[in-house]
Specification:
The chain is an all-alpha fold and about 350 residues long. It has 17 helices and two strands. Helix 3 packs across helix 7, helix 4 runs antiparallel to helix 5 and helix 8 packs antiparallel against helix 9. The longest helix is centred in the middle third of the chain and has 28 residues. The radius of gyration is 20 Å and the shape is globular. The relative contact order is 0.11.
Length: about 350
């Protein structure tokens, strides 16, 4: 038997405990949402742990490293919360744990993509700790990522719904397309803004959308509710990635959890770069063409890039755009009656953007 993996249980609360007060940060917003589904989230963690086990010892060893690295479980939390928003599980529900297994499935898809992304990007830090590829090597990271993808499809097929399988498998394919599209646009300052949005909606927002939509599916809700939650997830995920792209140029390393300026050094075409390039002078554009397109960088170039970002308002423009998607995410929830879950989902959207401020 391989090394056992364990996850911390959510904080225990008495049945009559009040909900977390209105949040003031993204962590508070997620904690408040998790409070509403804490038993489901604990069950999801148990499913995740059980499906990370293997007779091949390297798999649970690497999985244990991923668990130790933390993470907010945002995507599975969205699945659980959206199912609750739609009234699942209801009284007498025969299959009241479907949302738990599917939330774990969503997390496996996400974790597999992180393993692969870190190899492609040659990343050395994630959430402030060494990446799996930095410790175990690229081959192990790719193969364990493949293992987790396989586990996700086992969970999908075990659910037995072709509709769920279609939603999640389409999301997995879209994520891969988004990553390839990002590779194609790398170092290309002629990339249109719409193409950049295609990248982030593919590589990030598609899984947010699927995670939310299947909450409506397991609850047996109609097409309108499914679409509303898919829209909420798509807009939330888009805002989330826009803020991440801004933070690569605006956060300190401790806050970011990875090396500041990674996107710059890799020549990634992101919102802040496109905004700074468009708003800058011809001298500024020469700088961006040298550093991003030609990949000719000196040690001083990152600081100059940060200065140009500030001068052109590129970070604020990116965050303002993220805020616009946040408003669209909250508007998508309008189809549902007011209640604690809906309010907390709106809070998560609001405070996703505040990560960058």
């Amino acid at each position: 038997m391989g090394l056992a993996v364990s996850l911390p249980e959510p904080a225990d609360r008495s049945p009559g405990a009040s909900l977390t007060p209105a949040p003031g940060s993204v962590e508070d917003a997620l904690t408040a949402l998790a409070d509403l589904v804490r038993e489901d989230l604990a069950a999801c963690n148990r499913v995740i742990v059980a499906n990370m086990q293997s007779q091949v010892e390297l798999i649970p060893q690497l999985a244990a490293h991923l668990v130790a690295a933390g993470g907010k479980r945002l995507r599975p939390l969205l699945t659980l919360a959206c199912a609750r928003l739609c009234g699942y599980p209801g009284d007498g529900e025969a299959r009241g744990q479907r949302h738990v297994a599917l939330a774990a499935c969503v997390e496996f898809i996400h974790t597999a993509t992180l393993l692969h992304d870190d190899v492609v990007d040659e990343s050395r830090l994630r959430r402030g700790l060494a990446t799996a590829n930095a410790i175990f090597g690229n081959k192990a990271s790719v193969l364990v990522g493949d293992f987790l993808f396989s586990r996700s499809f086992q969970l999908m097929t075990a659910d037995g719904s072709l509709h769920v399988l279609r939603i999640l498998s389409n999301a997995a394919a879209t994520i891969a397309e988004g990553e390839v599209l990002q590779l194609v646009t790398q170092n290309d300052l002629s990339t249109k803004d719409e193409r950049y949005l295609d990248v982030i909606q593919g590589k990030t927002a598609a899984l947010f959308a699927a995670a939310c939509q299947i909450g409506a599916v397991v609850a047996g809700r109609g097409e309108a509710e499914e679409q509303a939650l898919a829209d909420y997830g798509l807009y939330l995920g888009t805002a989330f990635q826009l803020v991440d792209d801004a933070l690569d140029y605006a956060a300190d390393q401790a806050k970011l959890g990875k090396t500041v300026g990674d996107d710059f050094r890799e020549g990634k075409i992101t919102g802040p770069v496109l905004a700074a390039y468009k708003a800058g002078s011809e001298a500024d554009r020469i700088f961006w063409r040298r550093t991003i397109e030609a990949s000719e960088q000196t040690d001083a170039d990152l600081d100059h890039a940060l200065a140009l970002m500030e001068q052109t308002g590129a970070i604020e423009a990116t965050l303002a755009r993220a805020a616009g998607f946040t408003e669209r995410a909250k508007a998508a929830l309008g189809i549902f009656p007011d209640g604690a879950v809906r309010r907390r989902l709106a809070d998560v959207a609001d405070y996703t953007v505040r990560r960058g401020r």
